[in-house]
Design goal:
Number of helices of chain A: 5
Strand order of the largest sheet of chain A: 1-3-2
Helix content of chain B: 40-55%
Mean pLDDT of chain B: 88
Low-confidence stretches of chain A: none
Structural class of chain A: alpha+beta
Radius of gyration of chain B: 23 Å
Oligomer: heterodimer
Low-confidence stretches of chain B: none
Distance between the termini of chain B: 30 Å
Strand content of chain B: 5-15%
Shape of chain B: globular
């Protein structure tokens, strides 16, 4: 995905901010914080996961998402958030 | 005005959650506990253990277990064994297996969702986490009675037989169950009971001399030198001894006496301060228990307290309690909850030990429930509840 497409979504940026603040969260928890439904949240998480920026762990029916700190893209996004939100 | 001065050096050492490095008169039990769990430092994957600690209120059950937990975790860390000691007060989670387990899981994953799965699934999730992290846990279920009361044999069986359904997998969870007496587990079926009763450590009530030693130990940690006389400690020990050898009561009394001394700008904590403190304390019900109630549970309890303040009777019927609650709701400008809800609240209050309920089967029109306040003065309870409710309101 192009960088301009990746950063074009407010919800995706919000998800990244939420995960960098709370560490990890399930889909419903993220959706609640975003104020959108489960399906929309899931769709954006898939985009982020395809880019390697987030990853999930499965516990039975529950998926817990967190930032993939091993990815250089994630590191760059975290730096950006830190500078921007400081 | 004189600058603020205090008899305290570090009052946190008198806090209910503080666990001292040494536990006077409990060293033998601590050694025994270490002995039961010594395999965790040698072959943690090969076995698990279940121990029950019994004893009356204030005999040091929780302190013993937490001291052990801190000691064994430190030893395990030195040997690079990933061991966690987790202490759960089942009563704080209203005796629910699900909520107690959720607390354990949330130590590893702090935002773990609270909905969408059963207690059994949660147990599986916990084992998955422990396997992934190659971790071992000593899980202490404090106030185990409330879990037994609410969940019964099945939950206990599930917990204690957990390892048996994981054949050939590393062992992960050992248990310490803390309860006042073994009576509580008599209601369990034979198979659940047999999984528990192998190792029992019973803590006897403290003698007056033992309480004096415990209090002296805390005085040296919490108060400035020469601020607490021998007489003061002795009186405090005497009062704690008369409260069934309850060390926790004695320690709380000492803290309050120190507060009275500070409030009156005294250099020392006098026996008079202890007497004042004693008249304002009730040991059996913890203030934190009252504070943790939900709004309508508090309002219902306030109604009951007011009823007893106004009537010289030992019992209030549920119908009368409901009327008193309705008046309180009007005062606090909230809509009263239904009869069914009040039933649930009454069960919670009864589980916490704040009220006692009795069902009378007499009369042709069915059974009536009667409520009593066995241990707390209604006046004290009302004052406490109003304080909490006003704080919450502001």
């Amino acid at each position: 995905m192009n960088i301009e497409d990746f950063f074009s979504s407010r919800l995706r940026m919000k998800i990244l901010k939420i995960l960098s603040e709370v560490g990890e969260l399930n889909i419903s928890g993220i959706a609640r914080r975003l104020g959108v439904n489960y399906g929309t949240t899931n769709k954006h998480l898939k985009v982020l996961e395809n880019e390697g920026v987030v990853k999930h762990k499965r516990f039975g029916r529950i998926r817990i998402y967190r930032l993939n700190t091993h990815s250089p893209k994630t590191k760059a996004i975290q730096d950006l958030l830190e500078v921007w939100e400081r | 005005m004189s600058p603020y001065r205090s008899v305290f050096k570090d009052e946190t050492k008198l806090d209910i959650n503080y666990v001292p490095y040494t536990l006077p008169h409990r060293d033998r039990e601590l050694r025994l506990l270490m002995e039961f769990f010594s395999f965790l430092l040698r072959v943690p994957e090969k076995m698990t253990q279940r121990v029950m600690i019994t004893g009356d209120v204030g005999t040091g059950k929780t302190a013993l277990s937490q001291r052990f937990g801190a000691d064994i975790t430190r030893e395990a860390n030195k040997r690079e064994i990933n061991l966690r000691y987790i202490h759960v007060n089942c009563r704080e989670y209203r005796g629910s297996l699900f909520l107690s387990l959720h607390h354990v899981v949330s130590i590893f994953h702090p935002n773990f969702p609270r909905r969408g799965y059963s207690a059994e699934e949660l147990l599986g999730i916990l084992m998955q986490i422990l396997d992934e992290q190659k971790a071992h846990v000593v899980l202490t279920l404090d106030e185990f009675e409330s879990l037994v009361e609410r969940e019964g044999s099945e939950a206990v069986y599930k917990l204690t037989r957990l390892q048996e359904i994981r054949l050939n997998k590393p062992q992960r969870i050992s248990f310490i169950c803390i309860l006042r007496s073994l009576k509580a587990i008599e209601q369990l079926d034979a198979s659940a009971r047999s999984t528990l009763q192998s190792n029992i450590i019973h803590l006897d009530r403290y003698s007056k001399q033992q309480l004096t030693d415990i209090l002296n130990n805390r005085v040296s940690l919490a108060f400035k030198p020469l601020t607490v006389s021998e007489d003061t400690v002795s009186l405090t020990a005497e009062l704690a001894f008369s409260e069934n050898g309850n060390a926790r009561f004695g320690i709380e009394l000492l803290w309050r006496a120190g507060k009275y001394a500070d409030a009156e700008d005294l250099d020392t904590v006098t026996p008079e301060c202890v007497r004042k403190a004693a008249s304002s304390i009730y040991a059996v019900i913890r203030k934190s228990d009252v504070a943790s109630l939900r709004l309508h549970e508090k309002l219902f309890l306030l109604g009951i307290a007011r009823f007893f303040k106004q009537h010289e009777t030992a019992y209030v019927s549920l119908a009368e309690a409901e009327q008193a609650y309705a008046v309180v709701c009007e005062e606090f400008d909230v809509q009263p909850h239904s009869h069914t809800q009040l039933w649930k609240y009454l069960r919670t209050l009864s589980t916490l030990g704040v009220v006692k309920t009795e069902v009378s089967a007499t009369g042709s029109r069915g059974r009536s429930t009667f409520v009593s306040l066995p241990r707390i003065p209604a006046y004290e309870l009302e004052k406490e509840l109003i304080n909490i409710l006003q704080k919450e309101k502001s």
